[in-house]
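Hi R.,

As promised on Friday, here is the backbone we talked about, encoded as structure tokens. Could you run it through your design pipeline when you get a chance and send me back a sequence?
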């Protein structure tokens, strides 16, 4: 079963601020544990939304609308993700609960979603 651990963006990640060396070490250790357990498929961080664009389709059959970042609502943005392949939702929850605060400033939020 594939699950994605989605690290939500914060004001710090949107500003391009790197995590502290301690958090980088904790995340490296966490990722090494995922690899050692054979469940990590992929893990990537994303650039701030200032380098992004959104394509929306407000009217069926008409041209899409393109909006360029940065986007102001960081609570709706993603800073990175980890894709894991586990045997159950319970196992995915266990791994998600072990993930360090992805922002390290008390702003971290992780969303766990199953992949179709």
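Update: got your reply. Pasting your designed sequence below so it's all in one thread:
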């Amino acid at each position: 079963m594939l699950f994605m651990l989605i690290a939500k963006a914060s004001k710090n990640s949107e500003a391009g601020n790197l995590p502290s060396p301690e958090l980088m070490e904790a995340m490296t250790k966490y990722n090494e544990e995922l690899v050692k357990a054979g469940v990590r498929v992929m893990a990537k961080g994303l650039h701030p939304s200032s380098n992004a664009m959104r394509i929306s389709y407000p009217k069926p059959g008409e041209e899409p609308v393109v909006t360029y970042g940065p986007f102001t609502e960081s609570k709706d943005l993603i800073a990175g993700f980890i894709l894991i392949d586990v045997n159950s939702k319970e196992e995915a929850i266990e791994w998600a609960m072990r993930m360090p605060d992805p922002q390290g400033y008390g702003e971290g939020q992780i969303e766990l979603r199953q992949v179709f």
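One thing I noticed while checking it: The two ends are 9 Å apart (CA to CA).

Thanks again,
M.
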